[in-house]
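Instructor's aside before we start: the two examples that follow are unrelated to each other. I chose them only because their records fit on one page, so don't look for a connection. First example below.
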Amino acid sequence: MSGTDDKSDVGADGTDRTRAGSGGTGTGGTGPGTGGTGTGTGGTGPGTGADTNTGPAPGADAASTPGAGGDGTGAPPALTTPRGRRPVVAALMLGMALAAIDGTIVSTAVPQIVGDLGGFTVFSWLFSGYLLAVTVTLPLYGKLSDTFGRKPVLIAGIILFLVGSVLCAAAWNMAALIAFRIVQGLGGGALQGTVQTIAADLYPLKERPRIQAKLSTVWATSAVAGPVVGGLLAGYADWRWIFLINLPVGAVALWLVVRHLHEPSRPRPAARPRVDWAGALAVFATGALLLTALVQGGVAWPWLSTPSLGLFGASTVLAALTVVIERRAAEPIIPGWVWRRRTIASVNLALGALGLLMVAPTVFLPTYAQSVLGLGPIAAGFVLSVMTLSWPVTAALSDRVYNRIGFRLTAIIGIGAALLILLAFPLLPYPGEPWHPALLMLLLGAALGLFQLPLIVGVQSTVGWAERGTTTASVLFCRQVGQSIGAALFGAVANGVLAARLLDAPVTGLPDDLDAVARALEDPGSLSAAATDYLRRAVDAAVDHVYLGAAGAAALALLALITLAPRRFPVITEAAEAPRTAGAADRQDTSS
């Protein structure tokens, strides 16, 4: 942990003597985040309301009591009254819907977009460009929200997202559409990070289920509804409406934020806040080059080609330069304490591994369902979507677990169960029944709901207002980077297994990569029965290896929690009896 943290009063029996404030219901506090991949959702279970003057349950995470009126950061925790929170929550849900659905709604309209604008060879950048912009801007928006407040950053993000949507709808060729998708992504990064941070500001620990259950439902619904809505608009209207429908939703969210989100006044800083623009540019350039190498490697060019090696080499040099810049900056975009504090570092690594393992179900399971099981696109989507049904449920109930045994142990149970489920996938019979993988995905969603939310709630609960945006952004950034690494790594694994299986194929002229094999199996009449069966078995083997890789990622997350995460997270709680004015607080570290 950071050297600035004070030690808590821990008794000889190992229990923490520090008590939370007595009586009342706090409206500040912290909360979890949702999102990431299409099915990555969060939530906590039904809360009971008031904080009492009892200490943490045996095995639960320790709570520290801040001083007057704050969470230890000089900022009062309450953003609105309980009644006034409702329109703000509605705005957060709409903002979450914009960010969540945009990642999936474009996918089913690609044929119509390519048919109208051309650019088939580069259409993948419609997704890659958006992902790049979201990922590399997350640290910047996190720091800006801590420096200038959440409201201006969220307003700017919504406006930028809507401007990008209008430009996308007006695109005249594929290059313009890709450029405007990047503009959308610049706004999407502000939406993803700031929505999670405001959710943490709105609710204290015991009340967070109210917001997280709603945000979880929005994300899960958007992940399932996005492709359907996109297909309907592209088929019965025009693909440009995919972007135009963002305007009324975003306009309502913007009005609600401007009208109803009232952040507490903070003391005027002695010096004018300084933005580390050099660090922001360095982080942006490093992330852009690295993610471009990961996304395009093995697709647009071979992994060991000059473009790949050049991008990886340049990103390494820029990463070293970024470290130098950030160490010298007065207010760095990615401060060193993000990695020096055991709690934050362990959560970053664990959720980075989550992004890695989520590639297996979200990217490869639909191919498995269609190519191996012979399902149509809708049925294949259902096999995946069952995970989005169980994930929010267990996340919504996870507080009943972590309030008793602590954040770390709850997450360990969740990722341990996920590890066993991922290892079970290669044991499924060939070809098997559709309910076999559907059942595993239902169980996987339940396990990951128990894993992700306690970590996000826990890590946000260990920092105060002035550090919460940066902390939340670091978690989301690591998960996004993990997702990009997973897509590149597991894509190489799947294609490697296919190449090995097809080397000794019984017939010649078969495709040699996963996408080409999947397209060939969509028209089985062009292949003999033996060739079709051989290709199906090859896809089955490739996806099995991907799931084994995902199990390895789960093992890495488990290892990070066991070896690095503190036994009890040093939770900061609001002193409910204190006046809601700015004041200093003592942070207490029980992470030994």
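Example two begins here.
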Amino acid sequence: MTPPPARRQRNSAYGAAPAHNLPRRGAIRRAQMITTYGVGSLIAVDHESFIVSGLDEAERSWSRDESPKIYERRLARVLDVDFFRLPPASDDTSKDGLRVRRFPLMHSCPECNDLQRHRDFNPPAGRSVCGTCVVDLVPSRFVVACEAGHLGEFPYWQWLHRSTDRGAEKATRCGGRLKMRTSGRTSSLRSILVSCTCGQVPEVSMEGSFRRNALKDLGLRCQGTRPWLGASVPAPGCGLDLRTLQRGSSALWQPVLKSALSIPPWSDGRSDPLAEHWAALREYDTREQVEIYLKGAFKGNCPVPLDEVMTLLDAEREEDPDSESPPTLDHRYLALRNKEYERLRAGNEESDHSHDEQFICEAPLGDRSVLDPLGVTGPMLVKKLREVRALKSFTRLVDAESTTDSAEMPLSERPLRWLPAMEVRGEGVFLRLDEGRLGAWEKSLAVAARADRMRTAHQRVLEQRADDPSRVAPSPATPRMILLHTLAHVLINEWSLEAGYPAAALRERLYAADDMAGVLIYTATSDSAGSLGGLVAQGEPGTLGRTVRSAVHRAEWCSSDPLCMETEASGTGGINLAACHACVMLPETSCEHNNVLLDRALLIGTPDDPRLGYFEGVLGQ
């Protein structure tokens, strides 16, 4: 994040956009714009706090040189956009950056204890200090949010005057000034005290402000405020219950991310000039109609041959979900994964394609039959891949995995034909489980019962976190999915020990469905740790066989055993079983499912029932 020129300063009811005052030490990486500091999130720079502005402002400010377009037709189609854009670069040559607004506006002075809006302190231009005391102001530690994604200031006036006959809605008419101080007796909310110079109410603490119904009991409801969109955007009525949150709480902003691999015929970049024309081209069925459209759109100089355009249209129609009803985003996303699975199984020889090809997947040269005793089959060496990860929306209070469209907050006020995204290039290893052996293992009553316990717990958590429990999608927890997920984790941990990769530099991509049983492990970063060139070598059958055996043997033991293995439930909401940070959990950048739905017992069995484990026969080898 870099400071834009001073001439871009704009004033609003939310205060002057402070981006021009941000020091370079407040810069963030491009990838953080997608995963950590996206639109609508709060970002702390030194002692100040800001909220990242919406894409409406980004569309005007992000320069094309610093935030170029990137294309991935398959993902763009799922998300109903034409293209994606990289967030602005932050280096010594950049002239622009992410636009932010000051939030929260309520600040306190540690010297005079005044609690008021930032501008009422009369700070000098470009500084966040008390105009009287000349000490750094402290942004409010507390904010309020609702499950629809709205965000607002904590109502200090109403909280303090709640015991008066004036009523919460008339509290601001007392004419006094708010004060905030800390007693220093404890580190709890009881020591944070708020008072008013009007003298009509006693000093009260912040204790109890985090109760679920604390603000509801005051008669306060969400007003639909969206400070990241600016004061010019009218706040729609909302009316949902408000919750008090710490300014740095992880529940305050959770990204809804979608990703896709670039696979043929889209992976050579030749289709990029047609990015904004696919929606129109899909309306035509015949070659003649497509040709007429292209001649009109490109004035007879279409950069893509007509034969290739028809091939791309056929490939896109093949990914249409098999459903008579209008496909949902989940259906389209599953169809996207199905096509990736087919391509990873089939491979893509390097010698058959040009230098621009971004997907190269080949079968290893070694004897793959050495993996048969392990129940592993079909390893493929993905020597070259490209993944695009896009920020679709975000949620507050509601878990991103359990969200419905109504709980997701869009990144802009008006629909835009693009989304911010990151592209990652690297390599990987793809492997599958033997369908025959897997099918027999899944039919075990003990296996099904153990997976059902996890699925029930997961479904309960999803319903508790959703705004409308009746619309929550069923939990994806199946024996197959849990097995593949846990296997991916133990392999990543093994490669981090044996191959020199940090675990955070590797990432899983699961393909678990009735007709899919595979996992892709690939480099997940764009720095040097993502391009060491050694991951593909781990996919050779002999090496992979030794790795799987070592990983399975290592999973037999956890430093938290016997507690870890014998626990009835672990993790948030009891979603995991035999899984903890000492054995199979990974850094959050590596896991697709936030370290839930994991169970070592489905890999190796339990002391009481070794047959639970898919790899039970491997342990004695």
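The two ends are 54 Å apart (CA to CA).
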